[in-house]
Specification:
alpha/beta
Length: about 270
């Protein structure tokens, strides 16, 4: 029987959240620690930036500071995402693992199936796995700093609109995938945090947010709590990844290694 862990965290600052995800990834690299599903949220609005993204070029750092929005760099790739009214999940497992295909997209698909199971339980109708990167024809040359500007393989969409965005990092011994389930979204605020080459690009980005992004409250026609979403996600993962699921805190190895480090934006950054 396969062993799995669930870690349910209280809201934390951005530096701590990213440090914990990295610690769990390192822990799973040993192949001895069972894979872990972590469910968490954020103490205050936080913008996470992909590990290779040029935040000085694409992020309006001064506006973030004015609004008290923390900026941290993720261990995963992709583009920037504002974490505010949402539930964040992360999942880490050793490579290889018998329940996961060896490829990045194979792991994406397995995790997406678990997310779909949970979303269906809470009442989301019509949620599907995206078949590939989607942009409107007129926007093929348009680049946005926002993670929500496109739908990639095995991300979750509802009627063509993005509901869950995810990113993955793979090492030789393990993978980490984390993502955001939007409960609600201040689209105007999000769009104001980025730098754009032209005003037209800013308008295009806002149009995508208005028409190609959807939140859980919009899907359901009501608000749901993070606790409710935590529960259905645990149920969805346990149905797709069957075995012995154990809830508990970080192990001692992870606790020692979850100190925030240089992935975070310092106060003297531009």
């Amino acid at each position: 029987m396969h062993e799995w862990r669930v870690i349910e965290d209280e809201p934390k600052d951005g530096e701590s959240n990213m440090a914990i995800d990295r610690a769990v990834l390192t822990s799973c690299e040993s192949g001895v620690i069972p894979p872990a599903l972590r469910l968490y949220s954020w103490e205050r609005p936080t913008l996470t930036v992909g590990y290779a993204q040029d935040f000085a070029k694409e992020i309006d750092v001064h506006r973030c500071r004015e609004l008290g929005i923390q900026i941290v760099r993720r261990p995963t790739g992709g583009r920037a995402l504002l974490h505010n009214h949402e539930v964040t999940y992360s999942f880490a497992a050793s490579i290889p693992h018998p329940k996961f295909p060896s490829s990045l997209l194979g792991a994406y698909e397995t995790i997406a199936e678990a997310l779909l199971e949970g979303l269906k339980e809470i009442g989301v109708c019509g949620a599907t796995l995206a078949s590939g990167r989607k942009t409107d024809k007129g926007r093929r040359s348009f680049h946005s700093p926002s993670c929500l500007s496109s739908i990639n393989h095995f991300e979750i969409e509802v009627q063509g609109a993005k509901l869950v965005g995810s990113a993955q990092r793979r090492t030789k011994g393990a993978f980490l995938q984390h993502g955001s389930i939007l409960l609600d979204l201040d689209r105007t605020l999000l769009n104001s945090l980025f730098k754009y080459v032209t005003d037209d690009n800013r308008y295009r980005s806002m149009d995508i947010l208005n028409n190609k992004v959807i939140t859980l409250s919009e899907c359901l026609g009501k608000n749901v709590t993070r606790k409710e979403v935590f529960q259905v996600l645990k149920n969805g993962f346990s149905r797709v990844l069957q075995g012995n699921w154990t809830s508990g805190p970080l192990n001692s190895f992870e606790q020692v290694r979850c100190t925030p480090n240089s992935y975070s934006m310092r106060s003297d950054d531009p």
